[in-house]
Amino acid sequence: MKTVGIGTGLGLLGVILSWIIWGAGEIYTIPAGLGLLFLIVMMFSSGAMVSGSEMRANLATETKEGRKDRMKIMKYSAQLALPNLIIAGFLYFSLN
User: Fold this and answer.
1) Which of 35, 37, 45, 85 has its Cβ near the most Cβ atoms within 10 Å?
2) Cβ-contact 84, 32 below 8 angstroms
3) What is the pLDDT of residue 3?
């Protein structure tokens, strides 16, 4: 849950920076970008961007420690992406 707090802090910092840079009309820009960045990291670390045969080959040669590390990166990236995307979505739909 500490990671969700860090993601929320990054989202709020992004809101402040967006407001300073672009004004209140584009206040959701940086949190949305951060959310998408962490979402892309999550997709690559989960193996969602490879074909079935590549995924099978990766899982067959991967160690348990490597899989555990990959799943940890995926979990932390998701916990960082979620608050940023929620903040960006809330601000986007409340302003438009």
Assistant:
1) 35
2) yes
3) 94
